[in-house]
UniProtKB/TrEMBL annotation, chains B, E:
This is Pyruvate dehydrogenase E1 component subunit alpha. Keywords: Coiled coil, Oxidoreductase, Pyruvate, Thiamine pyrophosphate. InterPro entries: Alpha-ketoacid_DH_E1_comp, DH_E1, PdhA/BkdA, THDP-binding. The pyruvate dehydrogenase complex catalyzes the overall conversion of pyruvate to acetyl-CoA and CO(2). It contains multiple copies of three enzymatic components: pyruvate dehydrogenase (E1), dihydrolipoamide acetyltransferase (E2) and lipoamide dehydrogenase (E3). It comes from Syntrophobacter fumaroxidans (strain DSM 10017 / MPOB). Heterodimer of an alpha and a beta chain.
From TrEMBL, chains C, D:
It comes from Syntrophobacter fumaroxidans (strain DSM 10017 / MPOB). The keyword Oxidoreductase applies. Residues 4-179 form the Transketolase-like pyrimidine-binding domain. Coiled coil: none annotated. This is Transketolase, central region. SMART domains: Transket_pyr. It holds the Pfam family Transketolase_C.
Length: 65, 365, 326, 326, 365
């Protein structure tokens, strides 16, 4: 598990939207993207770990990956 | 192949009809209907009194900065030539001309009290609103005059501006375009000797401003601008010429700003009291009053009567203005007249302001 | 229908509007006998005479200033600035009067004028002949700022501009003037001012531009498809101001990625406003920083170096790929 | 050290630079005998004579144009436009020459001039006396655009502007001219042009502004702390162009939230560029849309409605709260 | 109080010394050293030949748009008065004047071939670069002249511009400022009868352009601009006056553009061939050659010799130019001279361009 960091996490606004939709605090998510960025995948994985239902990936997210 | 003088089609003249003592040069006296003479006098008195009243209102903080016109009332002699369809293109020191042309006193007050509504000019007369960027409005007169000529109309466009304005490039472009297109425009320079703190002599190295017309082969005339008869005569010549298809004219009207540039200005910083006193003696109203008294068109009683009348008129206008400004101005109005139709982003901004005002209202309750 | 260059299409718009409405007059330097230095007004003086197609003295403020007077009088002047690089001499007339007279007079007067000017680079011209400074006008309340990208939309937009009751600055991409021909219907056609157009559909990235740079943008979109299999959506603004942000903010909600393209210098340029609107209206859909592909913040160089200054296809491609792979 | 108004502080900068360097000359309408309509140049003509403190004829293009010639000659002219609303008449001289002569001559000539002008609203003025159009200059390559916010930084920036080898447009917030006094050291002090300042530290939201609106911004920052317990970080740009984006992009990486404030109209305004830089450089740290608190896209109304037009403390507070609660 | 003419300090004159047949008015013949006369002749021939050569280069696509000067070569008579420290403020049709003042022919070619480097003017002479926005450069001359006066120098600033330029507001502001400040400026209007397609008569309604000086109480002189002796004499009068502290002067130099406005222009659209032919007969070089032959300062041989010399000079310059342009221009240069020091965002943009160019280079390899 990741401890809440004080540093704000790096994430695109669209990733933030996903986190919001899933009710996830981005600071809890382990980043795997370039430059320590939280990716949408990271958020979904975290949601699954938390036992929440992952949202179906949106089409644009699919393109991004 | 000699060195030889080039003959030019115009010379520059000076015209003066009524001197400081109210004596008239009979040979030049214009033929003005008696009722018009009295009307001119009344308009000058009204302008003077209204100007004085505005100064008081400004000092009381009831209106903001404005440009007093004291001493320049004889300008009404020029607009007296205009017909309703003619175009008046003023700068910011033509309150007398604007009022002659139907501008309501309460609108003058509204403008200087910071209400956009003050920009309104009479619906049935072609007066442009006050123009502040010095000299730039002269070109609008040329465009209007072009329109008149294009539509084969008989109207004219008359532009007013100051001595300072003659230094601006737009003044030059306006005179040049007007003469190239030979449009019915009349340019009236109110040479009041000062552009804020700059004396006329340092505005231009030229002996007169009238001679600037020579650069365009345009008739140029210098006139005693405190002599309403001369102003009328000069304007008549120019307006008649324009109506007859004879093209534009330039008039330098030599007058004096007896008061401050604006109420934010202190003329003591840059000019001597003696100079002002000299010009007080050339007051355009006093000499005209003497002339009219002499001709029996005024009497001591009618002078007093007119004074009372105009004071009442001013008082009534002020009351109307006070009523108009009892409720605070509706801020939403700032979006009106931006465009004929507000584009979506302005509708959004208007909506934003509406929400802000509503929130404030709610907080206040 | 006839295939026309943009020069011919603009000429058609002027001709037809002048035929329809005798309040439309054309004025400017060399617009009459010479037909304009780009021949945009060619033949008009023969058809409509020198009172309606007016060769003026050489003074931009004069041209704009008398146009204002004409417009207030009730004419519909279409004035030409010979190159947009010289319209600065008329800046104050537009800012201080054209944009304000309706407001100043509380709606009593209107200024239905159009100020046309060729803008932009790419024609091996001298200094001051290649500028792209539409942002100045777009930032000025009271004005509208329109830039067509093809013969057909140039004609349709100019007709709308002439009929618009408010002052319109109309920049014509001189690099497009004779670059290609397009079918332009003889019958009247208008495009509303303040409305952008979707010119290519896609779902991966949104390319936003207007005017001359629409062409490298469309080329880049094709190449993205061809080479990368990427579907770029392309928006042509047509009007820079009032900026229609409905289409492009919608598009970016779908694509999550945007590339803006203009020749104008980057800083404080038109692209910045598009970024700001996207941030305001599509924020949570942004997957990558919005790329600005623009002229550099220097004086546009003389023509030997112009190609490297300009936002060409390659630079757009590179930016799109960076955005896509962010 | 003495407590001074901004008017006095600018006067001090002029006086001291003129004492030090006889190539510094001051020119403009009413700057001499009258000491300027805001008294900024008061007393200079007495100290330095009418050849160095020059009352010019009434022509803005003339003033700017001769300043360019003077600067090329080797003087350091500081010209005044009586109000920024009239500097449009000189636009082409700045754009076409001041900004370009170094480049055009390949470095042979320089134009070390300063064009000063009071800008902005809040002083119950007439039309054209309240505008805030710094974006025009900021978008012009070759110029620098500086706007101080307090007496002390006004003095220090003006000294730098006078010594700058390139043309600087220097807008003075007339609402600040006499609004308050600040300690200004007698000894020389400069602030480098192109460098912004952190004026309040915080970690929750970044407020970015310059000039007159720094004051409502700082007030809003205090209120946020007081009422909401929010720590706002505040950046004063000081120079609008060249825009220093290092400090504010850094700050937003920390706070994730930004509010930009200026009086200028919103669309295509200075704030848009700040948004664009934030998107380019702090993208992954943005937690909320960047709010722009600005003048509306209309002509700034006459003074009865000015307060509602202006981005005041309340509007800034509201925007900050929205951003924070996004 | 009459209507009376105002006496003005100046009249406008026309000056002509050498007629179309090379006959001179002895009473007006200026005292010019013989070597200078031949140097003037050579400069005019060089200008003519170089102009012709550029037209060929333009038609071959080797240079871009340029403004031919054919017919206006006598302008060198004016710059001949300038000393190195004096300032030349040209427009875009002063190649002869610029070359007289040390501008390298290869730099002229570079400029028109689209190289920023062509803007370079000689380091040891005070020539401003070519100025394209019509009329705007006149103000720079006033500022320079102010600097001279302020520093108590003896130099002058000489500005050139066309008949079209006299319509621009900046021209008016320049003349006004110059006369108000009484600075050592010389304004030389090259009235070549056309501003692109607009004939002089429709540029201004005035009989002459020289008379525009009257608007500023400035000496104004109209001179036969195809008569290099008259141009010299007129300029000498103005330059001497300026150096002696007598203030600015305005000269209308009446000449003719024999060629197109620029290489993008087709003069057949707007002017008759007969008009051009009339002016071909007034060619400034032919009449001056006749005069010099008559005075024995030229012979058939020396005329041929000079022709060969200038052709060789042009050829050499062209070769230098060709070598200078063998390698493509370095695009990175566009960031040079933007500011004395590049601010960070421009360094970033420069770096971006560098990366792009490197990438292209890599792809190419
Ligand atoms: C273009 C422009 N520049 C500066 C100003 C500021 N200003 C207002 S009035 C004025 C002096 C005008 O002098 P003049 O033309 O003689 O008119 P007067 O005020 O004497 O009536 C100045 C400099 C302005 N309004 N417009
Ligand atoms: C301010 C400005 N407006 C328009 C132009 C386009 N233009 C270039 S030269 C020219 C005509 C100039 O005429 P004139 O002043 O007589 O000079 P000439 O070309 O005859 O030498 C025009 C309109 C320009 N360069 N600058
Ligand atoms: Mg001008
Ligand atoms: Mg005055
Ligand atoms: Mg010419």
């Amino acid at each position: 598990a990741v401890t809440a960091s004080k540093e704000p996490p790096a994430a695109a606004p669209s990733t933030r939207r996903l986190a919001r939709e899933l009710g996830i605090d981005l600071r809890q998510v382990a980043p795997s993207g370039p430059g320590g960025r939280v990716t949408p995948e990271d958020v979904r994985r975290h949601a699954e770990l938390q036992g929440r239902k992952p949202a179906a990936p949106s089409p644009q997210a699919a393109v991004a990956e | 192949m000699p060195r030889k003088e080039i003959e030019l089609p115009y010379r520059v003249e000076h015209l003066s009809i009524l001197n400081e003592n109210g004596e008239v040069d009979k040979s030049l006296e214009p033929d003005i209907p008696e009722s018009l003479l009295v009307k001119l006098y009344r308009a000058m008195v009204l302008s003077r009194k209204f100007d004085e009243r505005m100064l008081i209102l400004q000092r009381q903080g009831r209106i903001g900065t404005f440009a007093p016109i004291k001493g320049q009332e004889a300008q009404v002699g020029a607009v007296a030539l205009l017909e309703p369809g003619d175009w008046l293109v003023p700068s910011f020191r033509e309150m007398p001309a604007e009022v002659w042309r139907g501008k309501k006193l309460e609108n003058v007050l509204l403008l200087y009290a910071g209400y956009n509504e003050g920009g309104r000019t009479p619906d049935d007369l072609n007066n442009l609103p006050v123009s502040i960027p010095v000299g730039t409005q002269t070109l609008h007169a040329v465009g209007l005059a072009y329109g008149i000529k294009y539509r084969k109309g008989k109207n004219v466009a008359m532009a007013f501006f100051g001595d300072g304005a003659t230094s601006e490039g737009d003044f030059h472009e306006a005179l040049n375009f007007a003469s190239v297109f030979q449009v019915p425009a009349v340019f009236i320079c109110q040479n009041n000797h000062w552009a804020i703190s700059l004396p006329r002599a340092r505005q231009s190295h030229s002996k007169t401003l009238a001679q600037k017309a020579l650069a365009y082969d345009m008739p140029g005339l210098q006139v005693d601008g405190n002599d309403v008869l001369a102003v009328y005569a000069a304007a008549k010549e120019a307006v008649d010429r324009a109506r007859a298809g004879g093209g534009p004219s330039f008039i330098e009207s030599v007058t004096y700003r007896l008061s401050m540039h604006t109420t934010a200005d202190d003329p003591k910083k840059y000019r001597r009291e003696e100079e002002v006193e000299q010009w007080v003696r050339r007051d355009p109203i006093i000499r005209f009053e003497k002339y009219l008294l002499g001709r029996g068109l005024l009497s001591e009683e009618s002078v007093a009567g007119i004074a009372d009348e105009v004071q009442a008129e001013i008082k009534e206008a002020e009351e109307r203005w006070t009523r108009m400004t009892e409720k605070p101005a509706d801020p939403m109005e700032m979006f009106d007249h931006a465009y004929e139709e507000l584009p979506p982003y302005l509708l959004e901004q208007k909506e934003q302001l509406r929400r802000e005002l509503d929130a404030k209202q709610t907080e206040a309750n | 229908m006839a295939k026309m260059t943009m020069v011919q299409a603009i000429n058609l718009a002027l001709t037809q509007e002048m035929e329809k409405d005798d309040s439309v007059v054309v004025l400017g330097e060399d617009v009459g006998v010479d037909g304009g230095v780009f021949r945009v007004t060619d033949g008009l003086i023969g058809k409509f005479g020198p009172e309606r197609v007016i060769d003026t003295p050489l003074a931009e403020s004069g041209i704009a200033g008398i146009s204002i007077g004409m417009a207030v009088y009730g004419l519909k002047p279409v004035c030409e600035m010979q190159f947009s690089g010289f319209d600065y001499l008329a800046f104050h007339q537009l800012e201080s009067h054209a944009a304000r007279l309706r407001w100043r007079s509380q709606g009593r007067f209107r200024v239905p004028m159009v100020m046309r000017a060729p803008y932009g680079g790419g024609v091996r011209a001298l200094e001051h002949h290649s500028e792209s400074r539409e942002a100045y006008w777009a930032h000025t309340p009271g004005l509208k700022m329109v830039i067509p990208s093809s013969p057909r939309n140039a004609r349709a937009l100019l007709v709308s501009a002439i009929r618009d009751p408010d002052p319109v600055v109309f920049y014509e991409p001189k690099a497009v003037y004779r670059a290609f021909r397009e079918e332009v219907p003889e019958a009247e056609e208008t495009i509303p001012i303040g409305r952008s157009q979707l010119v290519r559909e896609g779902r991966d990235v949104t390319l936003i531009s207007y005017g001359a740079t629409m062409h490298p943008v469309l080329e880049a979109a094709s190449l993205l498809k061809e080479r990368d299999g990427v579907e770029a959506e392309v928006v042509d603004l047509l009007t820079v101001s009032p900026l229609d942000d409905s289409l492009f903010t919608q598009s970016v909600k779908k694509t999550g990625r945007a590339v803006l393209v203009h020749e104008a210098p980057r800083s404080f340029g038109p692209g910045a406003e598009i970024v700001a609107r996207l941030v305001e209206k599509s924020f949570l859909y942004l997957e990558a920083p919005i790329a600005r592909v623009t002229g550099f913040d220097v004086i546009i160089p003389l023509y030997q170096r112009e190609r490297e200054y300009m936002p060409g296809t390659e630079r757009i491609l590179r930016a799109a790929r960076e955005t896509l792979s962010f």
